[in-house]
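Write out the 3D structure for:
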Amino acid sequence: MDKLNEILEDIRPDIDFDSAESLVDGNILDSFDIITLVSRINEELGIEISVDELIPENFNSKKAMEKLIEKYQ
């Protein structure tokens, strides 16, 4: 997902999202990062991620985020 890569790179260029895991549980991404990420995904990918989906498991890795996005597309 090229768009997700762009969004992640814009938000946190210091993180290698291809290999990073436990992004939320490991305090790599903070609440502001998640809010920004969800907002950008909603806006740029034209989807609306439900509040119920805002759980660490959905944002702990790029793979988890891709799975979440695919669910909405």
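The chain has one domain: 2-12+21-72.
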